[in-house]
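Let us work through a complete example step by step.
Step 1: write down the sequence.
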Amino acid sequence: MRVALVYNHSDKSLEVVQEFLKLCQDGQFIRDDKNPEVVVTIGGDGTLLGAVHKYGDQLDKVRFAGIHTGHLGFYTDWRDYEAAELIESLKKDQSESVSYPLLDVTITKNDGQVCNYFALNEATIRKVNGTLFCEVIINNELFENFRGDGLCISTPTGSTGLNKSLGGAIVHPFSEVIQLTEMASINNRVYRTLSSPMILAKKDVLLLKPHSHDGMMVSIDHLNYEADSFETVQLKVSQKRVSFVRYRHNHFWDRVEEAFIGARVVSKPCQ
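Step 2: predict the structure and record it as tokens.
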């Protein structure tokens, strides 16, 4: 099996990397960081996020497995002391995987240049020096004129991140949808927005047309772009998907419970 390693440089992660490499010396694995079958990340969710973008042009043939060495790993199924267990699972691999939808982001600049990106978690558009004024167009029809700090468009897996902090719903990643949430919208008798998270279907196409470009930023996962020259930002469910090894892939609602609640409380019946 061809395996790539992506890791951060914390002391714990470097320790796990050395252990992982020693366990791979039995000849069943080849380290191949250019053309892997499985990408193993060692670190946190940010490390895995970077790995997904690093291998973005190979998502149709690469699966991911994550070892987390920090306090919380929403995407990572293995703990820092379980490298040996992951190795044994890889040895018994049957190419099983579970895949999740991504967000397709198409940016058109005012010179006509078109750039395409994808997001695992979310894309945001915001102003850093004032109020964002932006047309929100759904399926070629104007839905609203937004005024406020910004807009967040998330995938189902990204619904537990910034989207949740903005009051958005947590969505199971088997649902092929995207979610639009507002950042501090202005609502009064002059300006009016829906002021509620919106879940858009797989076939829906969202187009954002900003009118206040100066100081505008667009973020796509961990990547940030100055957007003064951006004419439109189109978002929809991507045809690309990201795949994770399945043999110990935790159920989504178990991840949610562990990340945000921490312990299941069994209620006692009333006496």
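Step 3: interpret the result. The longest strand covers residues 230-245.
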